[in-house]
Design brief:
It contains four helices and 15 strands. It has helices at 2-22, 99-102, 175-180, 192-215; strands at residues 31-32, 38-42, 48-54, 60-69, 75-84, 90-98, 107-115, 122-135, 137-143, 152-154, 157-159, 161-163, 165-168, 182-183, 186-190. Strands 1, 2, 4, 7, 9, 12 and 13 form a seven-stranded antiparallel beta sheet that branches. Strand 10 and strand 11 form a beta hairpin.
Length: 216
């Protein structure tokens, strides 16, 4: 009976560890969540808010910023630009966004064509105004040197703060997330059934092995 209990405990523990491993991202991507000392930077025609970061994986495909409405109605247009500032200042990608769309959710995701060789490169995202100048829109930041590999700037001047931001790349997704993502060329299908089948087969095989060993 003791051996049987040991087999069951080991079997269950192995399954839990395996599932947990599937949910852990391959690498930690640059980001800074909002902290207690958060503050808003209101956007107007005189302000460009920037954040620099050191990318830790290839395939940079999006940057999220924390934005919020600063009045009863957000109007005008905001432009987001990404630059590679590793060696000089090189434009990568930009987009113009209606202010109302920018503040429609707590974060705005700025998507871009995946950058295959982004690992180890330093980037800067700029949030600035275009005509017509926006009103009633702000971005969130937090005071302090929270993200050590980059900084927040306002009109190219360093500030003791970091913008609320997050970066996205395939390596930052967990193994489970990658397995269950839609297949390329067919967004209606994924490899979830393969992952679930493999997990079930692994767990069943491990159970047989552990039970055999406990009986020896």
């Amino acid at each position: 009976m003791t051996a049987l209990r040991g087999w069951i405990a080991a079997w269950l523990s192995a399954g839990v560890v395996f599932v947990a491993a599937l949910t852990i991202p391959s690498v930690s991507l640059p980001a800074d969540a909002l902290g207690l000392r958060r503050f808003r930077v209101d956007l107007d025609s005189t302000i460009t808010v920037s954040q620099t970061f050191l990318m830790t994986a290839d395939g940079l495909e999006a940057v999220e910023i924390a934005a919020t409405a600063a009045g009863p109605e957000a109007t005008g247009t905001v432009r987001l630009d990404l630059y590679d500032v590793t060696d000089g200042v090189n434009f990568v990608h930009g987009v113009e966004v209606p202010a109302a769309e920018l503040v429609n959710a707590s974060v705005y995701r700025f998507t871009l064509p995946p950058i295959d060789d982004s690992n180890g490169q330093r980037y800067r995202i700029d949030v600035r105004t275009v005509s017509p100048a926006p009103a009633g829109v702000s971005v969130w930041a937090t005071k302090g040197d929270r993200y050590s590999e980059g900084m927040m700037l306002i009109n190219d001047r360093e500030r003791w703060a970091d913008l609320g931001f997050a970066t996205f790349a395939p390596a930052g997704r967990s193994s489970w997330n990658r397995l269950t993502s839609p297949e390329e060329g067919d967004p209606t299908r994924s490899r979830a059934h393969v992952a679930i089948g493999a997990l079930a087969a692994y767990w069943a095989a491990l159970g047989f092995v552990l039970r055999f060993l406990s009986a020896v």
